[in-house]
Amino acid sequence: MKTFLSLSLLATLALARPDSPPPSYAAAAPAYPDEPAKYTYSYAVKDDYTSNNYGANEDRDGYATSGSYYVALPDGRLQKVTYSVNGDGGYVADVTYEGEAQYPEVKPYSPQLLLTSQVLRVGEWGESVTAVNYYYYLFCGPK
What we know:
Layout: H1 2-16, E1 38-47, E2 52-61, E3 64-72, E4 78-86, E5 91-98, E6 119-122, E7 128-130, H2 131-139
Antiparallel strand pairs: 1-2, 2-3, 3-4, 4-5, 6-7
């Protein structure tokens, strides 16, 4: 009897084994042509309100790449970088500046302290609000 059960179990396991691996449901890997890269891009931002002024452009055809970018510096100058890369020649950049640096006079910092307990207004629940409490409410309180 034990032999019959062992043979039955062995036959069941042998018949339950799949003949091939399970099917793959993944998408086929995309095939890209083997050709050199070729692209052009550019962008620019000029916002007078925030004093942002920057941009870039680049052209690439195979291993030859050239482009430039610029940015307005905090001292008022405009920094421009023109670059090129050609194969194994490396990255060659030319950096120029337009305008003159402006350094405004530094004024020493002096905080304005409110040292008073004068009641400015009555709060929502009837509590009195002093100047120090009102400062806390404006800058640290609920938003």
